[in-house]
Every structure is written in C-alpha cells, then in structure tokens.
C-alpha cells in the first residue's frame, strides 16, 4: 500500500536518481502527519469555541496545578513564541475571562497569568475530549507501535535540540 509521500518519492527517484530520498520521506511523513492530526485537533477545539493556541495556554496553566498560575515568561518558554505574541494571546484570553493577569507582588517586573474559574470550567472537559480524540486518532497503532513511535520521535526531538531545559513546563 502506498501513501501520498511514496508517489512523490517515486517522482524524485525518476527525476533525480542520484539523491537519497530516505530522509526526505521521513520528514515529509512527519510534516504530513502533523497537518492531518492538527486538522482533527482544530476541529475538536472549535466544538468547544477554542483555538489550538488557546488550548495550549489554558492546558499549560491547568497541568501546572494549583494555583494554576505562571509568569508570562514561563508561558513564552512553554509555547515557544515571542513575548509579543504571548502578550497578544493573553490579552485575548483575559478579554474572554479565561485567565487573569496581575503584577507579581514578589517581582514587580514580572506578570502572573492565572487560570480563572471560567477558564478551568472550560479546559477540564476539553482536556478529556482532546485525550479521547488523540486515542482515537492513533487507534490503528498497537500500544507497542505507539511506544516505539514515541521513542523514535523523542530521540529525533532530542537530536534536534528539544531537550528539557530543566523546566518541567516545557512540553
């Protein structure tokens, strides 16, 4: 059985038989899987009136545990976006009443972002729905296959420099 990537690799083998396309196939499949999975995740989040980035921030605050609070800097690191982008995102979540923002009383240069009660009421069922969807999306892979794939992807991410910085908030 061939996938979409196989057809493209066959074309490259005809046009450029001098190039080893093995790695190209792996990267293309990772990218394609990401797009297909993300499409399903976005559709699920839309059912809950959330966007992917909103789930990321609310989920990060929720999984951090009580008091469900992080500095804006910690959220920047976790979300891997610029401080300007996180400010814009936090502004939008504050406007929806899903998070609050206050100056850190222990460090006036720092801003604390806290998951509001409304945000927690929203995120808890969404996390369950999200976990169920991901289980369904990977359902054709055995537990062993999923563990093997996770291990290979972990090794790739580590090789690409995505190791833990000692910060348990980094996904």
From TrEMBL:
InterPro entries in the record: HTH_MarR-typ, MarR/SlyA-like, Tscrpt_reg_MarR-type_CS, WH-like_DNA-bd_sf, WH_DNA-bd_sf
Q: Output the Pfam families linked to this UniProt entry.
A: MarR_2 (PF12802)
Domain HTH marR-type, by residue range, is 23-158
Keywords, sorted A to Z: DNA-binding, Transcription, Transcription regulation
What is a single molecular function from GO for this protein? DNA-binding transcription factor activity
Enumerate the SUPFAM superfamilies for this protein.
Winged helix' DNA-binding domain (SSF46785)
* PROSITE patterns assigned to the protein according to its UniProt record, in alphabetical order: HTH_MARR_1, HTH_MARR_2
The UniProt entry's GO biological process terms, in alphabetical order, are: response to stress
Q: What is this protein called?
A: Transcriptional regulator, MarR family
